[in-house]
Amino acid sequence: MIEARHLRVLRAVARTGSFSAAARELGCTQPAISQQMKALEKSVDTPLVVRSGRGMQLSEAGRVLLKHATGILAGLSAAEEEVAAIAGLRAGRVRLVSFPTASSTLVPPAVARLRDSHPGVRVSLVEAEPPESLAMLRGGECEIALAFRYPQSDGGAALPAPAHGTPREARAEANLEAQQLTAGTDWSDLVATPLLDDPLVGLLPAAHPLAGRSGPVGLSELAGEQWIAGCPQCRGHLVELCAGAGFEPRIDFATDDYPAVVGLVAAGLGVAVLPRLALQSVRPDGVSTVPVRTAAGVPAVRQVVALTLPDLAEVPAVALMLERLAGAAAR
């Protein structure tokens, strides 16, 4: 094997013309230079220097190796400098994948703080919901994935909501979707940084009898309402919460677009439950927001976390980005 230290010795010998001069340049002894040159010649199985009078010159093989050594050592030096810059947070890259509500609330202040303190670290963002975002993380397409999941009383995935009037045979399709959701909430192989418990709030039309109530609204009080649901995971959790309150919600509208949910509620077409983060980036005109309690009398929440792979958690830029995200969530 040709070692970088041997190539540095070869370059010094070629530049100075002798082992003793090369030793002075590299700050070592002449016997050490001679020993390393012998090791290099042994590894390539041919002489690399030829003595001529009181000096020495490179053989043909030595000149060929020196030509390649110049580029190899330059590349190593550049690599060492780049790695040192990354380790010292003078450079680096962090690719984020986030679900939309976190993209508009948690990510902007976190990235802004990181750029203020370490402008050489480049951060990029794409949006995806779990489980797609987790698949991207495990597939090497990002360093950090922001995700959420809902606490489950039985540890299983919530069943997606059937459409109003769906026959019982369609439950098999719902069960398949539930299995997919379970894959999106298995974080056992990842490093999870808890960010916050995001409370769920009820959205009611402004003229609704319960609008403006100061205390929490129990889901059972909304059993007879028409419902507007969100993404499949959110819809599944809504069905589970309502089942705990003793009823199956009639879901007439389903949309991942939170402004659309607000608009449908404001038009009096139903009620909804949304994460509080979602309302930070939406103007809830024409609706009333109320706290929501589960059948057990506790606040309904979803857990928001930043996920990464164990090895990536040790990368300085990734660790700093996780710290900034936690700081943004704490404000």
Task: Provide an overview of this structure.
There is one protein chain. The chain is α/β, with parallel strands linked by helices and 331 residues long. The chain contains 12 helices and 12 strands. It has helices at 4-16, 19-26, 30-44, 60-87, 100-105, 107-117, 132-138, 171-184, 232-244, 258-266, 276-280, 316-330, and strands at residues 49-52, 55-58, 93-98, 122-127, 144-149, 191-205, 217-218, 226-229, 250-254, 272-275, 287-293, 301-308. The strands form 3 sheets. Strands 3, 4, 5, 6, 7, 10, 11 and 12 form an 8-stranded mixed sheet that branches. It has a two-stranded antiparallel sheet with strand order 1-2. It starts with a helix and ends with a helix.
Structural topology:
Blueprint: H1 4-16, H2 19-26, H3 30-44, E1 49-52, E2 55-58, H4 60-87, E3 93-98, H5 100-105, H6 107-117, E4 122-127, H7 132-138, E5 144-149, H8 171-184, E6 191-205, E7 217-218, E8 226-229, H9 232-244, E9 250-254, H10 258-266, E10 272-275, H11 276-280, E11 287-293, E12 301-308, H12 316-330
Parallel strand pairs: 3-4, 3-5, 7-11, 8-9
Antiparallel strand pairs: 1-2, 5-12, 6-10, 6-11, 6-12
Helix pairs in contact: 1-2, 1-3, 1-4, 2-3, 6-12
The count of strands amounts to: 12
**Helix/strand/pairing class, anyone?**
alpha/beta
Intertermini distance: 55 Å
Secondary-structure element series: HHHEEHEHHEHEHEEEHEHEHEEH
Distinct helical segment count: 12
Strand residue content: 15-25%
Helix content: 40-55%
Assign an overall shape: rod-shaped
The residue ranges in which pLDDT falls below 50 over 5 or more consecutive positions are 153-183
Q: Rg from C-alpha positions?
A: 32 Å
Largest sheet: 8 strands, mixed
The mean pLDDT is 86
